[in-house]
Amino acid sequence: MNSRGAISYLGPMATFTHQAAWKVFGQEADYRPAESIDEVFAMVQQGEALRGVVPVENSNEGVVNSTMDLLVDSSLVITGEVVLPIRLMLLSREDEKESIGTVYSHPQALAQCRKWLRDNLQGAVLVDTRSTAQAAELCREKAGSASVAGELAAELYGIPILHKDIGDWEENLTRFLVISGRSAAPSGNDKTSLVFSIKDRVGALYEMLKPFGESGISLTKIESRPSRKKAWDYVFFVDFDGHMDDPKVKSTLEELEELCLFLKVLGSYPKGTVEADD
């Protein structure tokens, strides 16, 4: 099968990652679902897909650890991002919620509507699945069950929406990244992501962040993660405004490299906006 232009994504069909990929590349692209985030990276790395789409963080549940770790270890780079509003629905073939004894969904989706489920389906058994799409597929086949999933899953799997917007938070956003083997050219409205580790000394983190302020570069995010190489050793993920080819950014990165033990630019790419939920 020709992989030219193929897009891999965390599947199966109708996951929120699939929906994010549609937003970026359109519904007619050649999509290749993967069973895990690791497999999305592997498919792009091995040339089975030109680009991949993976979740990286949710506004309420935090970062997706496997994506963060793979960005550090992989040679792939970030070339785009999309931020989706996550609207959770209760899908079921049952006509009344009182007939539902089992609810399937991804653990994160269940966590994001915990209060609604407690108040409305107190006696139901909650069953974790690999994805919201898998949950929809399971409840389609089993009487007395429901799934927590998105509108796309309801459409593609042909399951009625019993209740809309059951999430516990009015604002629930997930950020997805596009990964590729080739860097993105400057667009004029970019951000850059990088990861670094610092020497264990007083004021080390302050020294690393100081060049950004001196250069007038705006930091938009900083996140620490265990390095997995040594106990109590951490790496720091930073997002900031600008493209790595900008002269000001280039000089700042050169200064940073002399201050840290490890530094890797994860990619420069056009800033994403919150996509409307169709």
Q: What would your notes on this structure say?
A:
The protein is an alpha/beta fold and 278 residues long. The protein starts with 6 loop residues before the first strand and ends in an 8-residue tail after the last strand. The model has no long low-confidence stretch (mean pLDDT 89).
State the separation between the terminal residues, measured CA to CA. 32 Å
CATH class (first level) name of the largest domain = Alpha Beta
Q: Tell me what portion of residues adopts beta-strand conformation.
A: 25-35%
Over all CA atoms, what is the radius of gyration? Answer: 21 Å
Name the poorly predicted regions: none
Describe the protein's topology:
Blueprint: E1 7-10, H1 16-25, E2 31-34, H2 37-45, E3 51-58, E4 62-63, H3 65-73, E5 77-85, E6 89-91, E7 102-105, H4 107-112, H5 114-120, E8 125-128, H6 132-141, E9 145-149, H7 151-157, E10 161-163, E11 173-180, E12 190-198, H8 204-215, E13 219-226, E14 234-241, H9 247-257, E15 260-270
